[in-house]
Amino acid sequence: MNEPMYAMQRANGEWLMTEIEGQRCLPVFQNAMAARRVHQRVGTLMVYRPQPLDSEVITKLQRQTPDLRFWLVDDFAPNPDLTPGRWLSPDELITAGDAGGYAMAA
Beta strands of the chain (E only): which ranges? Predict the structure, then answer.
């Protein structure tokens, strides 16, 4: 079973959003280890903490930002930013499911 993907969230509940290639997006990380690796490398992320994504969060973010896209960050790129990576469709997101399982977000 796959681990859920992660994103960065502040203590006040705000999710890290950025603009990549002119598109508003939520940077997403393959798993907890990838999120921690980038968190340590990118100094501006110090006010954020890696959080697992779940389908409720994805739905809420898509309602708040209808044109929101998802960017899978390349956690092994040595760049001090979030741009090495690729676009993800909502169907590719792996989220934490109910009862501790995992599910594909739709």
Answer: 6-10, 18-20, 23-28, 48-52, 69-73, 85-88, 94-96, 102-104
